[in-house]
């Protein structure tokens, strides 16, 4: 995957550009932002109930070390695991997205209001993005017709190889 030669290390600008390009390609083939938001949503849920994170508002303790602590540990760990799952096993994105949504909602009553709502919102958004993400489709080139930027121009394409649901049929493109 990472093919580095001695010549590429002598030109760090090219090596950085190549690494950025490889990361961009890797990121484009999976629900990256859904995984990142799900991962980030698990961190405050996991952090706030522990003994080193006691908060009190007028004598009301917000960090509990009983069942709320165990629930926070479980929910936060599962959200972090689901974030990594979305990155490396994108085939289960629907399951991971639904599980992230349910765990984020469950963290509101169980885990100190879901990490003071700092974990609920990214978890819900990440789970929703995971359910909505679809793998990129690879369309074969049609004949020799070229659209904008050299991409294939198909019967139902927009000139850059994307399918737009039949809106650009043969009658509309003439």
Walk me through this protein's architecture.
With 174 residues, the protein is mainly α. Strands 1-2 form a two-stranded antiparallel sheet. Helices cover 57% and strands 2% of the residues. Helix 4 runs antiparallel to helix 5. A hairpin with a 2-residue loop joins strand 1 and strand 2. The protein has eight helices and two strands, in the order αααββααααα. The model has no long low-confidence stretch (mean pLDDT 76). It has two domains: 31-132; 137-174, no CATH class.
Q: Give the rounded overall mean pLDDT.
A: 76
Helix content: 55-70%
Structural class: mainly alpha
- Alpha carbon gap, first and last residue: 44 Å
| Share of β-strand residues | under 5%
From N to C, what is the helix and strand string?
A: HHHEEHHHHH
Largest sheet: 2 strands, antiparallel
Q: Count the helices. How many?
A: 8
Q: What would you report as the Rg, rounded to the nearest angstrom?
A: 23 Å
Overall geometric form: elongated
Strand order of the largest sheet: 1-2
* Tally of individual domains: 2
Instruction: Please give the number of β-strands.
Output: 2
The poorly predicted ranges are: none
List keywords for this structure.
174 residues; mainly alpha; two-stranded antiparallel ribbon; 8 helices; elongated
């Amino acid at each position: 995957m990472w093919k580095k030669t001695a010549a590429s290390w002598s030109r760090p600008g090219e090596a950085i550009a190549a690494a950025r390009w490889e990361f961009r390609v890797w990121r484009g083939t999976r629900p990256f932002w859904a995984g990142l938001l799900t991962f980030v949503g698990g961190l405050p849920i996991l952090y706030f109930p522990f003994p080193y994170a006691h908060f009190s508002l007028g004598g009301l303790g917000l960090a509990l070390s009983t069942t709320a602590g165990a629930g926070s540990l479980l929910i936060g760990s599962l959200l972090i695991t689901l974030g990594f799952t979305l990155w490396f096993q994108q085939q289960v994105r629907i399951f991971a997205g639904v599980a992230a949504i349910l765990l984020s909602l469950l963290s509101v009553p169980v885990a100190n209001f879901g990490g003071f709502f700092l974990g609920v919102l990214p978890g819900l958004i990440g789970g929703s993005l995971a359910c909505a993400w679809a793998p990129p489709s690879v369309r074969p080139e049609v004949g020799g017709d070229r659209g904008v930027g050299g991409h294939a121009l198909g019967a139902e394409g927009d000139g850059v190889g994307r399918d737009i649901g039949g809106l650009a049929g043969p009658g509309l493109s003439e």
